Amino acid sequence: MSTSTEYASVRYFVADVQAAIDFYTDRLGFTLHTSAAPAFADVIRGHLRLLLSGSASSGARATPVEYAGPGANRIHLIVADLDAEVARLRATGTEFRSDVVSGPGGRQILLADPSGNLIELFQPAA
């Protein structure tokens, strides 16, 4: 899993990635880190990395319909080897809410905590 020196990442689904970039950078003091608008961007403020995912992003495509849209946020955990993590978790009986999805930034899969809150395991592209 990730180390304590990395950013805490949270994913937000947005209708317009550029409008979200403008809002977070202009109004709330975030700094643009990466932009692949209109699909995706991430902005940073302190130790928070906010992932702004439009409908064309792999993050949005991986999300089941019942969890899609604003308010369907999730914790984003970076892993070094997604396949190994999936195998380890499946061996414990963990059920996944999506299949592995690949995009330009990497690969991801969704699982849920006991209350149904989504957690994303993400392996960045090399």
UniProtKB/TrEMBL annotation:
Domain VOC as annotated: residue spans: 6-124
Alphabetically ordered keywords of this record: Dioxygenase, Lyase, Oxidoreductase
Molecular-function GO terms, alphabetical: dioxygenase activity; lyase activity
Record Gene3D superfamilies: 2,3-Dihydroxybiphenyl 1,2-Dioxygenase, domain 1 (3.10.180.10)
Any Pfam family the entry gives: Glyoxalase
UniProt keyword Lipoprotein present: no
Keyword Oxidoreductase in annotation: yes
PANTHER family: GLYOXALASE-RELATED
Full protein name: Catechol 2,3-dioxygenase-like lactoylglutathione lyase family enzyme
Source organism of this protein record: Nocardia fluminea
